[in-house]
Amino acid sequence: MRKLTSLLIATAALAVSAPAMAQDIVVQGKPLSETAADLEACLKRNCPPDEDIKASVAHAENLFVAGDYKTAQRTLNASIGRNRKHAKAYPLPVSDLFRANGRVAEHMGEGRQYQLSTLDMRNTLRDSFGDDDFRTLVADIEVGDSRAKLGFPDEAERIYRDVEKRALTAKQYRVASFARFRLATVARIRFDAEPTPANRKELDKRLSLLIDNPLPGGEEFVLAAKVLRARTDRKHGSSGSTDELVKEFASRGGVNRPVLLYSEPLVRQDNQSVVADGQAAPPSWTRVSTNAYGQWVDIGFWIGRDGKVSDVEILRSSGRDEWAKPVLANIGRRVYAPLKAEEGDRTPGFYMIERYTLTARVSDGNETGTRLRTREATPRIERLDLTEDNYEAPPAEKGA
Question: Do residues 118 and 101 lie in contact, with contact meaning Cβ atoms separated by under 8 Å?
Fold first, then answer.
């Protein structure tokens, strides 16, 4: 449960190039029948709200991994119906429940439910802990992430600036650094879209603020900013900063978890970039059938000690997987930091498993003046990391 519902700050900052914060899901290790029985037994004995939520999210995660997104969503919505009223008594479990619901909705293309669940998550924490508690501040950043991912970067930027100001006042320096990093990601996306000198200057200013003037406790965002700068430079034809980062990691003896330095963006046939957790989109997207929406693949691959990717393969899928072939190629071209070599350790590196879902946003009909729910014309690819061993508690869980 912890991965789907956790606030991944450092990991997300180092691993994702889009402004929306990626969140992970952990494979429970229990069969689907067992988590279903656990939830049923919990409800039969009228278990306390926190136990209900724990069992509901565990079962929903298992359903999600099994590819049954609709039942996962129904399971979470049912738990929300039972436990929303207990938010004051159990703010953290209820906020986790809303966060999990939003993540599943995102993979289903349910943008409205993703937005509302994120707001409910933030409101639950704010009502219990106040505006300036670090949990509320990080939740506000998640609200900003949702606005960015739904296509409103100006709103996201306003939210990030507000969080930065409040966090500085409250001396929550890690959260302030996180907000500054998010502001840098917005500047990076603007520069990628319009590589003008003015946009480059703004991006450099925001990155330099993180790199050259780090706040106390926000040192991990120095590295995150360097990674973002290297990705930007590499996309625009310069690999020097990436090479310097690789040397820096190597001089430290390597890293003990995967750190993505660069991943190529995906483009459609019309050469338009697609924001989908920074992942590639197949060139045939403009011809993909809407019947393919909701299909998913689990892709496994090795990250070697030298940071190179090998043995990329589809482990399982929900149907025809031709749409995912460019994703395989994209993963194979990633650049990771060199890994730490432990004495006597003969393993080839890290084995990663990532879930990719082909989806499209659902429109509620307001744009056309009807109540008909339709899919947007542009498909998306959503990504989740299913690799349990790569998780470490983020700053928000350790305390600010």
Answer: no
Which domains does the chain carry? 1-5+14-131 (1.25.40), 260-400 (no CATH)
Residue linked to tokens 């950043």: 141
CA 32/CA 51 separation, integer angstroms? 18
What pLDDT sits at residue 396? Answer: 39
The answer to whether 388 and 27 are in contact (CB under 8 A) is yes
How many C-beta atoms surround the C-beta of residue 124 within 10 A?
A: 26
DSSP state of 22: P
Structure-block tokens of residue 231: 């990705």
CB atoms within 10 A of CB 269: 12
299 within 8 A of 358, measured Cβ to Cβ: no
224 touches 210 (CB < 8 A): yes
Q: Mapping DSSP to helix (H, G, I), strand (E, B) and coil, where does residue 218 land? A: coil
Q: Identify which of 184, 176, 252 has the alpha carbon closest to the alpha carbon of residue 214.
A: 176
Spatial distance between the Cα atoms of 221 and 210, rounded to a whole number of angstroms: 7
Tell me the CA end-to-end span of the chain in Å, nearest whole number.
22
356-386: b or e for each residue (b if 16 or more CB lie within 10 Å)?
bbbbbbbbeeeeeeeeeeeeeeebbbbbbbb
DSSP string, 184-213: HHHHHHHHHHS--HHHHHHHHHHHHHHHHS
Q: What is the pLDDT, as a whole number, of residue 22?
A: 32
Q: Tell me the pTM.
A: 0.79
Tell me if 227 sits within 8 A of 245, measured CB to CB: yes
Low pLDDT (below 70) residues in the chain: 1-29, 266-292, 342-348, 364-373, 388-400
Helices (H) and strands (E) in the chain, counts: 15, 8
